[in-house]
Amino acid sequence: MKYMLLIWNRPGFTEELSEQDRTALFGEVDEIMKELTETGELIGGQALANPSRTLTVRLVDGSPEVLDGPFMESKEQFAGYLAVDCDSPQRAAEIAARWPDVRYGGAMEVRPIMDEAGTEM
User: Fold this and answer.
1) Dist CA 107 CA 79 (whole Å)
2) Could you report the average pLDDT of every consecutive run of 10 residues in the chain (121 residues)?
3) Taking every annotated instance into account, which residue ranges of this chain make up the domain YCII-related (predicted)?
4) What pLDDT, on the 0 to 100 scale, is given for residue 77?
5) End-to-end CA distance of the chain
């Protein structure tokens, strides 16, 4: 089963870390990515640019309008994702729980990816 692990964190939190802590955090990410590559579970993933560069399309007065920013009512913003192919939702959650951003107040959302055949999961 394929899962999307959505990374949510507070923008700029890494700049608040000491250089040693930041190096350790990125080292953990590299370690997890290497492991998932070796096990064949990693499908892909990317970090996203700063939320200030976001455009959001919303319906305004009956017409789609492009607005600057994500305009989320939260401290956390969508920061990136991993796509994994693993045996169970428990394994996907195990991978997400190891993501270092979680220790710094972030969150990982684990969502099954729908099959191309339709909406049935």
Assistant:
1) 10
2) 94 90 95 97 92 84 85 75 96 96 92 77 53
3) 1-115
4) 85
5) 10
List alpha helices for the chain, DSSP H: 19-39, 89-98
Residue 118: what pLDDT?
Answer: 62
* Cα–Cα separations (whole angstroms), residue 3 to 56, 59, 92, 100: 25, 30, 7, 19
Contact predicate 68/3, CB 8 Å: no
- What helix, strand, coil percent values describe the chain, rounded to 5? 35, 35, 30
Q: If we measure between CA atoms, which residue out of 23, 13, 6, 98 comes closest to residue 50?
A: 13
60 three-state secondary structure = strand
CA distances for 60 relative to 4, 55, 80, angstroms: 30, 14, 28
pLDDT at residue 71, as a whole number: 65
pLDDT given for residue 50 in this prediction: 80
